Amino acid sequence: MRSRENLIPVYYRLADDIKQQIEAGVLKDGELIPTEAQLGEQYAISRMTVRQGIALLAEAGLIDTIKGKGSFVTRPRLNQLVIDLTNSGVSKEQLRYKLVSVNLIRNNLELAHELGLSGETNVIAVKRLLFKDQLPVAIEEKFLRYQKGKPLLETQLEYADFPELVAKHQDSVPVRNDMVISVAVLSAEQAKLLETEEVLPALVVKQVIYSKEDKPLGVSIMVCHKDRFELKATSYPLSGRL
């Protein structure tokens, strides 16, 4: 029977070995890692396989490769944070979603500008509430370009995450999600939905998803109750892929 170690691709084991040396401080920031030829000899593998391992390390942000010079260890970028909205504040399993409304908005200039549209435009507006236990924790409004002949199922509107909803509804492939986090006060309508007082501060998370052509495909605005929702971020998460 083959051992578990033998089932792991050699290029992955090579990348994991180097990752452990970097994290243990054996290989230091700016230090040149062994050449492809040296690694190939050490692991008894081809240069092509070595390159696969190096590509994994580069994707994880652990090395920078300079053509003609080699691959150098890079310091973890602790000032770069990744927010996973599906796991922020409360876990997805604890959240309950309630679809509040779905509307077709015609010729709204502000929304048209946000979505990079011009002339007569139709925009789908979806509003839902997020609950933890019996308490509403956030209001989410999603605005999508109207696509004739592309109906959205109610289950998608109610349960799909915003990037997933955009991906299913658009012909273009979403490749970038820009986010702005700010603070605002609750309007009377928002306070009523969140079952709290008016003019209380709230966390506002705005996302705009773009295509490869830099065309906005959808806008999401999530208004979060200040005491019931929090955002969590992790620095340098890419190396966790190894």
From TrEMBL:
SMART domains per record: HTH_GNTR (SM00345), UTRA (SM00866)
Pfam family, one: UTRA
Coiled-coil segments: none
Tree of life domain: Bacteria
SUPFAM superfamilies noted in UniProt: Chorismate lyase-like, Winged helix' DNA-binding domain
Record-given protein name: HTH-type transcriptional repressor NagR
Record InterPro entries: Bact_HTH_transcr_reg (IPR050679), Chorismate_lyase_/UTRA_dom_sf (IPR028978), Tscrpt_reg_HTH_GntR (IPR000524), UTRA (IPR011663), WH-like_DNA-bd_sf (IPR036388), WH_DNA-bd_sf (IPR036390)
UniProt keyword terms in alphabetical order: DNA-binding, Transcription, Transcription regulation
Tagged with keyword Glycoprotein: no
Keyword Lipoprotein: no
Domain HTH gntR-type: 8-76
